[in-house]
Amino acid sequence: MQFTSREWWTAIHGMALGFGFILFFTAALALVLTLESRLLTPQGLRRNVILLKISGTVIAVFSWLAVFIGSYIVYPWYRAAPPAGSTDLMSFPRSRLLANAAVSGWHNFGMEWKEHLGWLVPIIATAALFIIWRYGEHLAEHKGMRWTLFVMLCVAFVLAGIVGVLGAIITKEAAVV
Amino acid sequence: MKRQTTIKNGSSAAAILASGIGLAVTGLVTVTAENIPAWLNALAWSKPVGALEGKTTLGLIGWVVSWVILGVLWKDKEVKLRPVLLVTIILFVVGLLTTFPPFFDLFSKHD
Questions:
Q1: How many domains are there within chain A?
Q2: Chunked mean pLDDT (size 10), chain B, 111 residues
Q3: Cα–Cα dist B95/B111, whole Å
Q4: CB contact under 8 A, B16 and A79
Q5: Is B76 on the interface with A (CB under 8 A)?
């Protein structure tokens, strides 16, 4: 079994960065939910915040890498137009989807939504990261800001989840090869 | 001796509101581009990526510029968080709605 370079980039974009995002999101969420002074010793609070800073940074960095790799490396392969008169659309996923009415919706709806929605995730994740670094251990005393952070992380996660599911389905229907 | 520090929420409120502006700008650029062919073509800054590059770059510019301006205005200030959150939610909804294909396809149809 061998991967082509295109398949490697697609795997890095969707699987490594996508699953990494989910993994560190789970950690960040658990850390935010337990970030209360009454639940933690000062040492525990300090350690939680360090871990939250790490997981928040990874979430933001992974989401930026995912959209840049997705948009500037993988997407051009996806949307490349086949030569005029070409009937072999194997290397042209967008054209392959549009050529079949039964699956064309995965481009017209799926990819059209995914390519825009994906860019919203790192914006939200970066704002969340700023709050984490700005407040640090003080998040334990600011319930309102803590809940705002929680909601922002959840919104980023839901959007990333939609993007990930669409990406998986589109790849199943017409992989970049 | 324990260090006592008061964190003003202005900088964080600026980051929150700017994220909403970033989403809304991305969405508004998208929905207008999908309805004005000349605008869509103008946003295609590179052939491989197409109009996605222009749409998302303008969204990022809107986000960064608004964050810088709000960050300067609200630096070391305590702002009322509730109205900021309310406006941010509205901007999030605008951004999400205007990047949803069935919504922007209501007006026009392009690949």
A1: 1
A2: 70 98 97 94 96 97 98 96 97 97 78 47
A3: 20
A4: no
A5: no
